[in-house]
Amino acid sequence: xxxxxxxxxxxxxxxQAQTVIYQDLLLSASKNSAKxxxxxxxxxxxxxxxxxxxxxxxxxxxxxxxxxxxxDLGDLPSATESVGDSxxxxxxxxxxxxxxxxxxxxxxxGATEDSIGIAKKEVTIKKLNWCEEEKKLxxxxxxxxxxxxxxxxxxxIKDEMLKVRQELYKIKQRLHKAGKYSKLExxxxxxxxIDLEKDIKLAQLLYQEEIIHLSSLSHxxxxxxxxxxxxxxxxxxxxxxxxxxxxALGHKYAQQVKQKEQEILMLTHSQYPTLSMYGxxxxxxSDPNDAYESFDNIKKNSWKLGLAIRLNIFEGFKYSDxxxxxxxxxxxxxxxxxxxxxxxxxxxxxxxxxLSYLKTLVEKDENMHDKTTQKMDMINRxxxxxxxDSISELNTILETLERKLNxxxxxSEIAYENASLDILFRGAAQCTQH
Length: 434
Fold this sequence. Notes:
Blueprint: H1 4-15, E1 18-20, H2 22-32, H3 34-53, E2 60-70, E3 80-83, E4 86-89, E5 93-107, H4 111-177, H5 183-218, E6 227-229, H6 248-269, E7 274-287, H7 291-296, E8 299-310, H8 318-384, H9 390-424
Parallel strand pairs: 1-6
Antiparallel strand pairs: 2-5, 3-4, 5-7, 7-8
Helix pairs in contact: 2-4, 3-4, 4-5, 4-6, 4-9, 6-8, 8-9
């Protein structure tokens, strides 16, 4: 007996159902989703690009070494001439040079700042893409979770209804044998039982499928045979109504508009002069017969330091064409933003309207369920005094279960719509990564 008690406790622990909470699945999905991790890598990539752009603020310093052989084909004395961009050297010799080159863009009317600002906005956009993808993931989990709960409700209540139907069929079968019930009506009752069994099987199949989907989406291993889904538990007080502009998608389009406007500004700045500084330090050596000697003869030659101003005067109408393209792109972003804003507002309106309808329906069904329960109590009292038959009692039980099924499904629908509204209204600040 001493060893039997721990064994019972162990068995109780093993068969205890795994409690599954909707919010826990959301947190696990946000943490482990491979797709969200890919979006996170997009953020890291764009952040690295920003760091790369900051290098434009620093000068570039390069060291170069050249060695060559020059063969004179004429009778000119050793000399160097330049024509345009071509440098012509006369004289036959090996020559080597070592140079240190410095270049630095001093001022470009904010073009560098514009490029960094555009890149930073791209980082923000990638973060908001992560938030939008998380909302889609959470909505998918909500759809599956709500469907699983409704399937479980149907399985449990219809299983009770099936037992009552089977008991009712047995009574009617006895009445049929006694000649008090027609064969046709008995056949209808048998068909009703078959349909009910089919409904239960379909609900079980859907439940299993939804649990498998939830396991995949949330990265939580769920056993459909040994879990208990906790109701979603959302009501109106949990929904924080936000304008479209406060959502992740609204913030994303705001950033895209600013980004495109800054691209237009950067294009304008590209038409302004660019002030640059350059410097070179040269070492040179030559030998008419030996390449190695030309390297050994390298010595200080010259250095220079200068300023350069560059202004694009004409680029074949490239500026005007690019500017027009950017304006079209900006207009498209604004139109797309307005489209999604309109869809968002009507989606919210539709959900709120459905919630209002469901609440009215639930109030009526609660009232009907209460009345049916009262009727059931009265039937039980009459049954105890043998004033009502078994068929009437079982039909009342079926009616009560039907009311209960409808009420629980509608209550589940209300919780689903409230949770869906919570996801829809979720602002950028409510994103998990924030």
